[in-house]
């Protein structure tokens, strides 16, 4: 078990889509900001990690379980817990509750540390994670293998200036934008996601183009993001039809 930090949030117009559901890229971005505020309170901010260890945090995976999507006007509580780590990864849980403290959704995010010069993953220093009181686990958290696409539909996108984060690479939430955007409005307006597995493989750099591709098998879609023939991200999404 790790230290828990939580905040309350009322969902405004800018955070919701045409169905009045929360936009998942916005929700993920808010959750990551929440974790950043906890690290600052524990005096282990991103800047301190860079200054003291010459390392930066990267995200390798998101696992989303979506029982109910928060909607416009809802007041939700987001609770985060850095619950476990091993030699290579730290695992953080975000749990979203409604006003009656009923769980609506859960996001488990996999973090790793990288040397910004060599771009190689580093071992997790024990003293760095000690303030979070996370449990040490020997085993890596396994995620489902995502198949290679054989006959996908695709769209091409330019990487834009505002797609980039402070490190000069594409913001994590932008990948989910590209993954959604390649699908039709008709499908998205009639379905909601219930589970998402999103894996980041390689950074997307500025001034390039990416290809968002997907295949659909009934209520399951499989996605990837490529650039110059290289694989940069993959995802599997399970959907449900919206009942009238």
From TrEMBL:
Gene3D superfamilies: Hotdog Thioesterase. Residues 147-241 form the Acyl-ACP thioesterase-like C-terminal domain. GO terms for molecular function: acyl carrier activity; fatty acyl-[ACP] hydrolase activity. Keywords: Fatty acid biosynthesis, Fatty acid metabolism, Hydrolase, Lipid biosynthesis, Lipid metabolism, Transit peptide. SUPFAM superfamilies: Thioesterase/thiol ester dehydrase-isomerase. CDD domains: 4HBT. InterPro entries: Acyl-ACP_TE_C, Acyl-ACP_thioesterase_NHD, FATA/B, HotDog_dom_sf. This is Acyl-ACP thioesterase. Belongs to the acyl-ACP thioesterase family. Residues 3-131 form the Acyl-ACP thioesterase N-terminal hotdog domain. PANTHER family: OLEOYL-ACYL CARRIER PROTEIN THIOESTERASE 1, CHLOROPLASTIC (PTHR31727).
């Amino acid at each position: 078990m790790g230290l828990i930090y939580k905040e309350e949030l009322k969902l405004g117009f800018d955070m919701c889509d045409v169905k009045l559901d929360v936009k998942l890229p916005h929700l993920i971005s808010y959750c990551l900001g929440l974790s950043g505020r906890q690290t600052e309170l524990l005096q282990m901010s991103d800047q301190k990690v860079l200054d003291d260890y010459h390392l930066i945090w990267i995200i390798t995976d998101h696992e989303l379980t979506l029982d109910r999507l928060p909607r416009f006007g809802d007041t939700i509580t987001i609770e985060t817990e850095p619950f476990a780590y091993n030699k290579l990864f730290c695992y953080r849980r975000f749990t979203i509750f409604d006003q009656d403290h009923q769980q609506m959704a859960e996001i488990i995010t996999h973090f790793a540390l990288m040397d910004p010069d060599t771009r190689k993953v580093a071992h997790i220093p024990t003293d760095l994670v000690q303030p979070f009181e996370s449990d040490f686990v020997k085993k890596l958290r396994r995620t489902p293998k995502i198949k290679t696409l054989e006959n996908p539909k695709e769209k091409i996108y330019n990487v834009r200036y505002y797609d980039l984060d402070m490190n000069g690479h594409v913001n994590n939430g932008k990948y989910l934008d590209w993954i959604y955007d390649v699908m039709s409005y008709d499908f998205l307006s009639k379905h909601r996601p219930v589970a998402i597995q999103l894996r980041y493989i390689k950074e997307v750099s500025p001034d390039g183009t990416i290809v968002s591709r997907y295949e659909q098998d009934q209520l399951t879609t499989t996605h990837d993001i490529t650039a110059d023939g290289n694989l940069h991200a993959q995802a599997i999404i399970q959907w449900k039809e919206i009942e009238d």
